[in-house]
Specification:
Keywords: Phosphoprotein. By secondary structure, this protein is α/β, with parallel strands linked by helices. The chain contains 11 helices and 10 strands. It has an 8-stranded mixed barrel, surrounded by 5 helices. Helix 5 runs parallel beside helix 6. The chain binds ligand C2E and calcium ion (CA) (3 copies). The site of one calcium ion (CA) has 4 residues, from loops.
């Protein structure tokens, strides 16, 4: 049922970033960070492979810790999820991302804005209304917001998320299935939830050029998404080979360090101007 399981033991887990330190933070400290304005959203472009056009950005939260420097989500999302702080955290990230989307839109830049949503956010039915109101307040049309979802293994009741996601889709919000192929995202979900975007996990994209099995996973995911009428994003595009491979495989969009690292909003316009000049053919 899970693609990762179907494909056997080698299915890799989450990609890890080289880290100098790995601290853990308490739920109270994370809560304080939200209150104190220590969080910041970075944005990473999603680009159309055929044209090089920038079609959207993904929001990735960071914590500017006063003592520890920049702290990445892998060091605090899990605690936020386990403690319930994730509700406030997602609220903050979403609110800020929508405000940014509005600012760019007023500057004539209309991009789809993707926000990562935790399965824990999909436990209460009021989440649909929350997202709808936030988008309305920011004057962002639903179709411009994309919610990226990764399945959690620890889902107590899969019916609530299913109902919430279906309601969101009916309201025309975009839904993206993240980390596809890792075993965190299942084929079952593809049948049950009306996703409109599938993101092939970066572990496959990295290896596609040299590893036949990864290549097969990309091809199968692409075909599946095509059949189901979804757009396919390859994430973790780190070099020219990855880009060329995804393009040839028929994927729609690409995201990764080859295009741009996640960056603060202030840097985005400068990047965009420069990108238009050096789009890979
Ligand atoms: P994700 O949603 O799969 O996001 C992609 C991750 O890959 C990001 O790590 C991004 O910086 C990194 N990345 C982008 N391009 C490349 C590349 O070319 N090569 C490699 N090796 N990595 C690349 P980041 O920002 O550390 O985020 C890690 C995870 O934390 C995210 O994985 C997402 O699951 C979670 N996350 C981030 N922001 C939020 C948030 O606001 N809310 C929630 N619930 N989760 C978040
Ligand atoms: Ca994501
Ligand atoms: Ca991902
Ligand atoms: Ca590679």
């Amino acid at each position: 049922e899970r693609l990762g399981d179907l494909l056997g033991h080698w299915a890799p887990g989450r990609d890890t970033r080289p880290e100098t330190s790995r601290r853990s933070y308490s739920a109270n400290r994370i809560m304080a960070a939200i209150r104190n304005g220590e969080l910041v959203n970075h944005y990473q472009p999603k680009v159309e492979l055929a044209t090089g056009n920038v079609i959207g950005v993904e929001t990735l939260v960071r914590w500017r810790h006063p003592q520890d420097g920049m702290v990445y989500p892998d060091q605090f999302i899990a605690v936020a999820e386990a403690s319930g702080v994730i509700e406030r955290l997602t609220g903050w990230v979403l609110n800020e991302a929508l405000a940014q989307s509005r600012r760019w839109s007023l500057a004539g830049i209309d991009l789809r804005m993707a926000v990562n949503v935790s399965m824990n956010n999909l436990a209460s039915i009021s989440f649909t209304d929350f997202v709808t109101e936030e988008a309305q307040c920011a004057c962002v049309p639903p179709a411009r917001l994309v919610l990226e979802v990764t399945e959690s293994r620890l889902m107590r009741d899969p019916r609530a998320p299913l109902e919430i996601l279906t309601r969101l889709r009916l309201k025309r919000f975009g839904l993206s299935i993240d980390d596809f192929g890792t075993g965190h995202s299942s084929l079952r979900q593809l049948c049950d939830i009306p996703f409109d975007e599938l993101k092939i996990d970066k572990s496959f994209v990295h290896r596609a050029w040299e590893d036949e099995t990864s290549r097969a996973v990309v091809a199968v995911s692409q075909g599946l998404a095509r059949q189901l009428g979804m757009k396919v994003v390859g994430e973790g595009v780190e070099d020219r080979e990855d880009w060329d491979f995804l393009r040839c495989a028929g994927c729609d969009h690409a995201q990764g360090y080859f295009i741009a690292r996640p960056m603060p909003a202030e840097e985005f316009l400068a990047w965009l101007g420069e990108w238009r000049v050096r789009v890979p053919a």
